[in-house]
């Protein structure tokens, strides 16, 4: 990135889909402009039913492109090509199920989709639709296909939907979308009002992170590839939202996030005993740690020498810490992670039941772009209450924030349910 490109305003082409959340596009334009972006808008066929083009035209000071580009303009200009060359970032907000399907298929039947095909830079998408629609396999397949091609998803979030129900499908707040644009367009001015949710104030959140190491002798151990990044991102997100956060970490090389109380452990048994100190007080427990299922039965006091022949390793099972919490932390919302390489849904659903958890966050650790060590993840959350939620590939920090939305909504639900429905 050159000095010159850092100095010039970032150009954002905002594609507005035809859903009720389109009314928020006016606010989004303003917030992008607050950060020094130059914004132009284009509407899908039905978007003007939800937001008058004139509103966006006045805010941006530029004509808003609708369908008329398909009719002759007289100038001979190919608008979708010039728009694609002009923009630094292409952002679709809101993106309806129909718009996602058209983008996934590579259709080129209006200005938005032809521009998307002609645009070489980062494409961001903020979906908005009813929860049932979002959960549909057809929609999720399109989401996965787009994510595979590098499209960046922002939300959707949990919250009140147009139908009045609370669920997953709400378009992310314009400030969240601006932050996502900022991550793709370096050089934006700093946020004048960083969004700070405080929905976890007064809650105690207990999080485990990283690997465990099970010693064989003073220099060798059984371990795994967990870096702790996912758990540390969750701890940081919970602390930002006002929770008291206790983080129990296996051996990792990460800084403690601000405001987090950290306890380092090495083995699964140590992790179990440190977690037990806070389990009873926790409102929310999130087990991201990759806890070793087995440990060597005997730990040699001295380094095992080559000359003694090939040692036979006898293993014994470690306790399952998450399962144990159904007894030690019956009141807490208990969330596990599932590290899978195949049959992700089947295995995650089985873990939800077997471990007595309320949610299992499944990730495919067979992939190198997500899961262990990567800065990004892609997860599906299986819930004992409600449909599963897919969060397409994005940074672990963003995944953590979306997960905290889900956990916070569930904690809120538990606070208000009748006492005789508690589990
Ligand atoms: O740390 P990173 O590099 O950022 O990578 C993140 C991650 C891939 C480690 C994380 O996203 C993840 O998937 N964590 C769970 C790893 C795991 O051990 O999964 P599992 O499917 O084996 O276990 C299921 C759940 O039971 C987990 O919540 C685990 O913490 C828990 N468990 C497992 C074994 C055991 N003895 N006790 C447990 O409590």
| CATH level-four homologous superfamily name of the largest domain | CoaB-like
Spatial shape: elongated
Strand order of the largest sheet: 12-11-8-13-16-17-18-19
Helix count equals 14
Alpha-carbon Rg, integer: 24 Å
CATH topological fold name of the largest domain: Rossmann fold
Q: Residue-averaged pLDDT, rounded? A: 90
Largest sheet: 8 strands, mixed
Bound molecules: ligand PMT
CATH arch. level architecture of the largest domain: 3-Layer(aba) Sandwich
CATH class of the largest domain, please? Alpha Beta
The total domain count is 2
What is the strand content? Answer: 15-25%
Helix fraction? 25-40%
| Count of β-strands | 19
Low-confidence stretches: 1-7
Structural class: alpha/beta
Cα separation of the termini = 54 Å
Summarize this entry quickly:
By secondary structure, the protein is α/β, with parallel strands linked by helices. The chain has 14 helices and 19 strands.
Features:
423 residues, alpha/beta, Rossmann fold, 2 domains, 8-stranded mixed beta sheet, 5-stranded parallel beta sheet, 22% strand, disordered N terminus, binds ligand PMT
Question: Mind explaining what this structure looks like?
Answer:
By secondary structure, the protein is an alpha/beta fold. It has two domains: 3-184, Flavin prenyltransferase-like (Rossmann fold, 3-Layer(aba) Sandwich), CATH 3.40.50.1950; 204-415, Rossmann fold. It has 14 helices and 19 strands. It has helices spanning 3-7, 25-34, 53-60, 79-86, 97-105, 111-118, 131-135, 137-148, 174-184, 229-240, 268-279, 321-328, 344-354, 396-416; strands spanning 11-16, 38-43, 89-95, 123-127, 152-153, 157-160, 166-170, 204-209, 214-215, 221-222, 244-249, 260-264, 284-287, 294-296, 315-317, 333-340, 359-364, 376-383, 389-395. The strands form five sheets. It has an eight-stranded mixed beta sheet with strand order 12-11-8-13-16-17-18-19, with helices on both faces. A five-stranded parallel beta sheet has the order 2-1-3-4-5, sandwiched between helices. Helix 2 links the parallel strand 1 (11-16) and strand 2 (38-43). Helix 5 crosses helix 8. The longest helix is centred in the C-terminal third of the chain and has 21 residues, at 396-416. Ligand PMT binds at residues 210, 226-230, 268, 287-291, 293, 318, 320-322, 336-339, 351, 355, 363, 365, 371-373.
């Amino acid at each position: 990135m050159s000095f010159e490109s850092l100095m010039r305003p970032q150009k954002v082409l905002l594609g507005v889909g035809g859903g009720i959340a389109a009314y928020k596009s006016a606010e989004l334009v303003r917030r992008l402009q607050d950060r020094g972006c130059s914004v132009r808008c284009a509407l899908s066929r039905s978007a003007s039913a939800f937001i008058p083009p004139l509103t966006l035209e006045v805010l941006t000071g530029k004509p808003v492109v609708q369908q008329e580009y398909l009719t002759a303009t007289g100038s001979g200009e190919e608008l979708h090509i010039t728009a694609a060359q002009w923009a630094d970032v292409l952002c679709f907000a809101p993106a309806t199920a129909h718009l996602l399907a058209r983008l996934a298929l590579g259709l080129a039947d209006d200005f938005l989709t032809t521009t998307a095909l002609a645009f070489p830079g980062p494409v961001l998408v903020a979906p908005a639709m009813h929860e049932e629609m979002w959960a549909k396999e057809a929609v999720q397949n399109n989401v996965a296909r787009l994510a595979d091609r590098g499209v960046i998803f922002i939300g959707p979030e949990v919250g009140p939907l147009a139908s009045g129900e609370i669920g997953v499908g709400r378009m992310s707040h314009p400030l969240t979308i601006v932050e996502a644009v900022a991550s793709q367009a370096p050089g934006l001015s700093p946020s004048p009002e960083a969004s700070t949710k405080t929905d976890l104030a007064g809650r105690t959140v207990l999080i485990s992170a990283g690997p465990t190491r099970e010693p064989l002798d003073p220099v060798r151990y059984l371990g795994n590839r967990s870096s702790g990044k996912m758990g540390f991102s969750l701890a940081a997100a919970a602390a930002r939202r006002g929770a008291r956060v206790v983080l129990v970490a296996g051996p990792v090389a990460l800084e403690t996030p601000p405001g987090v109380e950290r306890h380092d452990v090495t083995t699964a048994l140590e992790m179990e005993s440190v977690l037990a100190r806070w389990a009873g007080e926790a409102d929310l427990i999130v087990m991201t740690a990759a806890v070793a299922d087995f440990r060597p039965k005997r730990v040699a006091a001295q380094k095992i020498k080559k000359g003694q022949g090939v040692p036979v390793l006898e293993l014994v099972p470690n306790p399952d810490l998450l399962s144990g919490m159904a007894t030690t932390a019956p009141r807490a919302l208990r969330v596990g992670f599932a590290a899978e390489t195949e049959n992700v849904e089947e295995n995650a659903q089985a873990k939800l039941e077997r471990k007595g958890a309320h949610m299992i966050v499944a990730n495919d650790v067979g992939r190198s772009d997500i899961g262990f060590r990567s800065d990004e993840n892609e997860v599906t959350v299986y819930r004992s209450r409600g449909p599963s939620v897919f969060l397409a590939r994005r940074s672990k920090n963003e995944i953590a924030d979306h997960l905290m939305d889900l956990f916070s909504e569930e904690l809120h639900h538990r606070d208000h349910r009748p006492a005789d429905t508690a589990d």
